[in-house]
Structure formats: C-alpha cells, structure tokens
Amino acid sequence: xxxxxxxxxxxxxxxxxxxxxxxxxxxxxxxxxxxxxxxxxxxxxxxxxxxxxxxxxxxxxxxxxxxxxxxxxxxxxxxxxxxxxxxxxxxxxxxxxxxxxxxxxxxxxxxxxxxxxxxxxxxxxxxxxxxxxxxxxxxxxxxxxxxxxxxxxxxxxxxxxxxxxxxxxxxxxxxxxxxxxxxxxxxxxxxxxxxxxxxxxxxxxxxxxxxxxxxxxxxxxxxxxxxxxxxxxxxxxxxxxxxxxxxxxxxxxxxxxxxxxxxxxxxxxxxxxxxxxxxxxxxxxxxxxxxxxxxxxxxxxxxxxxxxxxxxxxxxxxxxxxxxxxxxxxxxxxxxxxxxxxxxxxxxxxxxxxxxxxxxxxxxxxxxxxxxxxxxxxxxxxxxxxxxxxxxxxxxxxxxxxxxxxxxxxxxxxxxxxxxxxxxxxxxxxxxxxxxxxxxxxxxxxxxxxxxxxxxxxxxxxxxxxxxxxxxxxxxxxxxxxxx
Length: 484
Prior knowledge:
The chain is an alpha/beta fold. The chain folds into two domains: 2-145 and 345-481, FAD/NAD(P)-binding domain; 155-210 and 256-340, FAD/NAD(P)-binding domain (3-Layer(bba) Sandwich). It has helices at 13-25, 43-46, 58-61, 77-90, 186-196, 220-227, 231-255, 257-272, 278-281, 300-307, 391-412, 437-440, 461-470, and strands spanning 2-9, 31-34, 97-98, 101-109, 114-121, 127-137, 161-163, 178-182, 201-206, 212-215, 294-297, 310-314, 317-321, 324-327, 332-334, 337-340, 353-356, 359-360, 368-369, 373-374, 380-382, 416-419, 429-430, 448-449, 478-481. Strands 1, 2, 3, 4, 5, 6, 17, 18 and 21 form a nine-stranded mixed β-sheet that branches. A five-stranded parallel β-sheet has the order 7-16-8-9-12. α1 (13-25) packs parallel to α11, α5 (186-196) packs across α10 (300-307) and α6 runs antiparallel to α7.
C-alpha cells in the first residue's frame, strides 16, 4: 500500500498554496495533491458562466509568494487560471498533482497513527487504498457536483432552457434572447451585465435586495506604487495597503451600520438617478455584512440598467409557465432562458466519509480550533478562509501554521497532534456570524466556536497573523501523542 506523509485534497488556490509551503518549509516530507477533477483551479476552472471573475482584489486573493502583475486588480477567471498555472509551473508543483483522484473515505487509526484512504479514479471508477500521516483538506466549502436550486412550482411547464451557473453549457447562445436571472448575489450581479450586450433583454428577479458597491477594477494607487518598485516589493506594499484598508472599512462599517447602509444606498442612487426606485430594488432588509457585499466593477451592473438592456424586479415567484415566470403579483416575466443564480450547497470536509477509530465523524458535534482543526480529530487540517476578506489570506496562514506544526511533531519525535477542548471552554457560539442562504441551510451541520482562544473563529487576519507567525504553536489545548 502506497504511503505519503501528507495528502492534500484539492488543487485549487488553497491546495496550490499548501503544496508550495510543504515544499519550501517541510522539504523532508513526501506529499501529493489529490484532485477529483481533470484540471487544477477549483472554482476558477469549474464555473464557466459569462463574466466569471473575482470579487476580491487579486493582491490579497493572490499568493503571498507569487506577485500578481496584471494592472487589473479584479480579474476574470481565465486570468486567475493563468496565474495559478504559472505558479504551479514556476515552483515545479504540477508533478505533485494527481488528477481525477477523488478521496471517498478516510479512517484514522490511533494505534497506527495513520489515515487509511480510499481514492477513486474518476476515469475508470477503480478504487485505490493508500495511507498518510496527515490529511490536509483544501477542497473548499461547497459541493462541486451540484449547486442549490429551490423547489419552484410547475418548473416542468417552462418550454425554454433552465440553467444553473454551476452547470453552465459553454456552447449556450443567448443572442437576442429574453433572459431572467433568479437571484441577486455575486453570481447574478456578474452574469447580468456580462450578458446584457447580446440579449434582447435580461431581468434580475430577486426576492429581496442585496448591498452593492461600485469601484474601478484597476487600483490606480496600487499601479502607481508598482510602477516605481520591483515586482515583489510593489506587490507586498499594495497587498498590505489593501489588507489595512479592508480592515479599516470593515471596522468602520460595524461601528456605524446605519451610516454605512445610508452610504451604500446613496452610492447606488448616484449611479441610477433619483427617478429610479432604489428604495424598492436596492435597499436590503438586513444590515451590511450580515451578508457579504457584492462588488460591481466599474459600475457595470448599473450601466446595464441605465442602457435599458437590463432591469431589476423585486417580487416573489408564484410558478413557472410555458413562457416564463408568473409572479405573486400576477405579472408574468417572459423568458427564453431562466438562470437560477440561487446559490451553492455548502459542504465541509470535502464530502469525505471520515471515521476516527471507526467512529463516524459528525463535525456538528465538534468545536473548531484556530479555524483549521477540530476537537478530538487527530492529524487533520481543513482550510477555511475568510468571509470578511480574501479567502487566500486565511489559506496562506493555515498552510504556514500546518508546516510549523508538522516540523514540531518531528522535533518532538511524536506521531500525531490532536486538539482537546478544556473543561473551561463553552462551545455554543455559531461557526460563522453571517446569515447568507448557503450558511443558513446547513447551520445545524456546522462545528461550533468556543468561548476563548484558540477555539474562537475570529475572521480577523491581523489578529490571526499575530497568533500564527509570532506565537508558539504549542498551547495547553493541543496534545502531541505517540502511536498506540
């Protein structure tokens, strides 16, 4: 049976960052990346819908060790994929990726201090068994196989085409078509302006509004800094400018939510004009950052509305009809194509069937430790980035910490680590304090937070970087043990 010291699951941004850190910080360890799909890139290879782009700036969503050189700080998926492929080749990581290899089960054995994995070859459905010391999950937080679609009445009656963005047919021709996009989140606000030039008309149908913020897709100050510095120094300075600015804005937003709400709504009104019904279509019922803001690069969504090619309808759906969607108001929206931009299905632990000493792991019964491990779960690291900043900032810190932990385990001459929660820790706080739909649907399945460090999920990069880079890996809650 093949044995690898560290098995990384997933060859997206998190997995590539993990591989780089393992190679440079733990050169004595063997590692591999098991990727269930045929290409690297994760999200940026999976989604093919028009306009697919980042909604975080690439100086913080890019890797700490690999400068983002494009003048555009908000990048489309092809540019991000090019960056990821450049990274893999520059640091000679491609040979470490095994494509079409899906981990279907993982069983931890304390007597052996090993993970026993079953890995399915997606090309011929054969199953291979292998072992590893450390299982490092980097497969993201949602189900790659299926997006979320609510149950709509009479869906089968619609005579046109229904498409979920996660299953976008690349050959889809929407020229001169009437299109209805159900949803108002980051996906919808990307699709609507991207399709608006070719369609006859596109309507964003939302049950309730979302907060939007428009800004240029290029960082003029950042590009000025990079013009007069080296690639690495310029990238470092712009990255930290953006980190500090994002944190400042978030703190300001949370201190003055009412003022922030007013500012965001007035910002939309300035783009759409006083005659547009901003109160109805762009004034959410919740406060800013109860859900994530949606970024509108160069105001493209508002430009599409002003052009007359796009519109917003705020109403609930009664049923689908042969020609479109009937609303509860009685109005019918005609459509040739309906796009259900209704969200993701969240899935932790990459959908792997995990057992600890033959006991099935129920993650909802566990408490998270430093946002990357779970109480009483040995030698498992799971990447979960930030919801209030770029995902990669969190993923980078986790991979740094993971390497420190692996090296410390070797230094101690021990076989495994395991977070064990103290009697003084109360585990009752929810894992994430957002109320987005994809979180609400699985809230009872998520782990908890504890009442003190290191059991708190702070979602604060400045706090976490201090903890991980400048404090000892060891604490009273992390136990180191010998096999058996």
